[in-house]
Design a protein that fits this description.
This protein is α+β, with helices and mostly antiparallel strands. It has 3 domains: 177 residues, no CATH class; 120 residues, Neuraminidase (6 Propeller), CATH 2.120.10; 228 residues, Rossmann fold (3-Layer(aba) Sandwich), CATH 3.40.50. It has 12 helices and 36 strands. The strands form 8 sheets. Strands 29-30-32-31-33-34-35-36 form an 8-stranded mixed beta sheet, with helices on both faces. Strands 17, 18, 19, 20 and 21 form a 5-stranded antiparallel beta sheet that branches. The chain has a 4-stranded antiparallel beta sheet with strand order 1-2-3-4, covered by helices on one side. The longest helix is centred in the C-terminal third of the chain and has 18 residues.
């Protein structure tokens, strides 16, 4: 990777981007760029001292970088950007340094660096400290890579990471990495489950010591903790890995009280704590009435449990602390019509960063200074979006054919009142434990703006509706999970929402699989479909998954998808392409680390064999989804044209969509 470079002198230009956006829009057809250009600002975080804000932005240079705002002076500046990567994540280290990471070409292999927010000397450039190279080089003995296990928010100088002990080292392990100089010190009490292999699940206490972990052993999930910080692990719980069980949250300030969320005593879930020394489990602290647990809310130092947030059809918060509840009421009264969340605070909690958003509002950040009693906006996520021109996302539900209650969200176009409109069934990826949420979705709003109704279905297997609902989707790829989408189409037609001759399927990842499956297993329902990075061959998917060294990944394929060869063949869309009746749009990234590119090459061979109409966009420098802004724009222009061609037109007299001759020829985007 090339060395990162500093950008300065952008205060005025950046302010215009943050305050007003850069794309003009008028009523009616909104420019595609308003939805899919890089956000003006996102992932804002306050420094612990409350004096600075950091956030991700393109900074006007195309690649995503980190920007800085001085809350005392109001000055904005570009802190750091890179020539050849998009920065994906950053952490404050104390109030003086920022650690940031990014990948190249969508391979999800991060390099990590650190930068001070103030140069060592006036007039000098800030010195970038290289902490690691890309993780993809882990088999290169000269590689200096690491995987951050915990950013250690209470340690201003270190992060905890797993990897090699520097370039050329043969020593693998857990290390404290100094962000000031990149030096690593080995965590001596780290006990790996396997040699030279890290399985996510370790948890540190408030002093940066490894104290608890979740590990997979065969088909069992095991929860362990260290009563003595330097002693051995003792078992706290054991349960089948395909059940919800325990989800560890954090250590309280005493470093012995471990908060957890469990689904053993209630299906939606219950918040409890356990003393890791006595192994005494607390009575229920809070049981989710329905929906999905989101997060535990605490004071900055974790000494006070403020409340919990959870999600049903919309987000909710339950407070235990009266002062915090009153503060939230004041914020909500000041910012009516949006869902308002405190996303970051200063260490003394006098300065708060609030994100106000909704289904039609991408988000506006506000800073509340409680000492001065002032609150004001500091940036819009997408300044080019006018919420008044967006469409509401309506929670809906229907009964599946076997009586299971299925929930989702319906977004209608502006001209939908009193008439049937083209409908896009839009299944989410995952599939297990993932779900669609109420909130601003640029893709959904874009499609609604183009005249299509969009139905997002939280089919069985999705998260957010209890452990039994999630497990109801196990081994149901192309089966009952697909039936839920079919039943959604029938429901939308019965409700007078959808034109039955103009229904499409479109999804990414598992949603791409569901698109392919729907078009070959129920071809009579759809007039076209769009597959974005979807698996086409379940045998290939499971085969690659079984070869991983990560036991958690192996458990996913064994317990949730299955490895019966007959089942995998019967549920693979690849084996039924001769049934395809309608045009198919596809998009894949060559570097995809999750859905191997061979899912496309095998699918393409079948499409050609049976002379089926299709289009294809391939990006050589992308992975699981297109993250480069230029590539993303090109993709959505092609998708927009595809739907205008096959979904919007009135069907021909025989009830079939007209397919133009050139749709049979593949088109590659370079």
């Amino acid at each position: 990777m090339r060395k990162s470079t500093l950008r300065a002198g952008l205060a005025a230009a950046l302010w215009l981007v943050l305050a007003t956006g850069i794309y003009a829009q008028t009523a009616g057809r909104i420019p595609l760029e308003a939805f899919f250009a890089e956000a003006d600002c996102r992932s804002m975080q306050l420094a612990p001292d409350g004096r600075h804000l950091a956030f991700l932005s393109t900074l006007g240079f195309g690649k995503v970088g980190v920007a800085l705002m001085d809350l005392t002076t109001g000055k904005y500046e570009a802190l750091v950007s890179s020539h050849d990567e998009n920065i994906k994540v950053f952490y404050w280290k104390g109030s003086d340094y920022i650690v940031y990471g990014g990948d190249i070409g969508g391979d999800e292999s991060y390099s990590w660096r650190a930068i001070p927010i103030v140069p060592a000397k006036p007039g000098e450039l800030r010195r970038v400290v290289t902490l690691s190279e890309a993780y993809r080089e882990r088999f290169n003995e000269n590689a200096n890579f690491m995987q951050i296990v915990d950013p250690l928010p209470y340690d201003p100088r270190h992060v905890m990471a797993w990897g090699r002990n520097g370039a050329g080292s043969s020593i693998f392990g857990m290390f404290l990495v100094d962000v000031y100089d990149g030096r690593r010190s080995r965590v001596t009490n780290y006990q790996p489950v396997k040699a030279d292999s890290y399985e996510p699940g370790d948890m540190v206490d408030n002093h940066g010591r490894l104290r608890a972990r979740t590990r997979i052993e065969g088909k069992q999930a095991i929860i362990e903790a260290r009563p003595d910080p330097e002693g051995p692990y003792v078992q706290l719980a054991k349960y089948p890995a395909d059940h919800g069980g325990w989800a560890l949250q954090f250590f309280a300030a005493d470093d012995e009280t471990l908060y957890l969320f469990e689904t053993e005593t209630s299906d939606p879930g219950t918040l409890r704590s356990i003393n890791i020394r006595t192994r005494q489990l607390s009575p229920p602290i809070f049981t989710i009435p329905n929906g999905e647990f989101d997060a535990v809310i605490t004071s900055w130092d974790r000494s006070i449990l403020y409340g919990v947030s959870y999600v049903t059809d919309k987000p909710h918060t339950h407070f235990f602390d009266a002062g915090q509840a009153k503060l939230q009421q004041t914020i909500d009264a000041t910012l009516p019509g949006t869902s308002n969340h405190i996303v970051s605070t200063s260490q003394d909690e006098k300065v708060l960063l609030i994100l106000a958003s909704s289904d039609r509002e991408p988000g506006t950040y506000y800073v509340l200074d409680q000492t001065r009693g002032r609150m004001g906006p500091v940036g819009k996520v997408r300044g080019s979006i006018d919420p008044a021109q967006m469409r509401p996302m309506e929670p809906v539900s229907y009964l599946a054919r076997d009586g299971l209650d299925i929930h989702g969200y319906l977004t209608k176009p502006a001209d939908a009142a009193g008439q049937r409109v083209p409908l896009i069934i839009h299944p989410h990826g995952g599939p297990y434990g993932i779900r669609d949420y109420w909130g601003f979705d640029p893709e959904v709003q874009f499609l609604a703006n183009r005249g299509y109704a969009v139905l997002q279905v939280n089919y069985r297997g999705s998260g957010g509706y209890g452990d039994s609902f999630e497990r109801a989707g196990f081994h149901e790829w192309g089966g009952k999970m697909q039936d839920d989408l079919t039943d959604a189409v029938k429901w939308a037609i019965e409700q007078g929402i959808a034109d039955p001759s103009r229904v499409a399927l479109y999804g990414a990842s598992y949603g791409g699989y569901a698109t392919l499956a729907g078009l070959v297993f129920t071809p009579e329902l759809y007039c076209c479909g769009a597959n974005y990075a979807g698996p086409s061959d379940l045998g290939l998917l499971v085969g690659l998954g079984k070869n991983t060294t990560n036991d958690g990944t192996k458990a996913f394929y064994a317990l949730e998808l299955g490895d019966d060869k007959q089942y995998l063949q019967a549920r693979s869309p690849l084996n039924f392409i001769e049934r395809l009746r309608v045009p198919l749009f596809n998009a894949y990234g060559y570097n995809d680390p999750r859905v191997d590119f061979r899912h496309w090459t095998r699918l393409e061979a079948k499409l050609k064999q049976f002379k089926k109409p299709y289009e294809i966009v391939i990006e050589d420098n992308e992975g699981h989804g297109f993250h480069n802004e230029k590539n993303r724009m090109a993709y959505y222009r092609r998708l927009e044209a595809f739907f205008e061609r096959y979904l919007a037109p009135v069907p021909s007299g025989n009830g079939e969509k007209k397919v133009t001759k050139d749709a049979v020829s593949p088109v590659k985007s370079s």
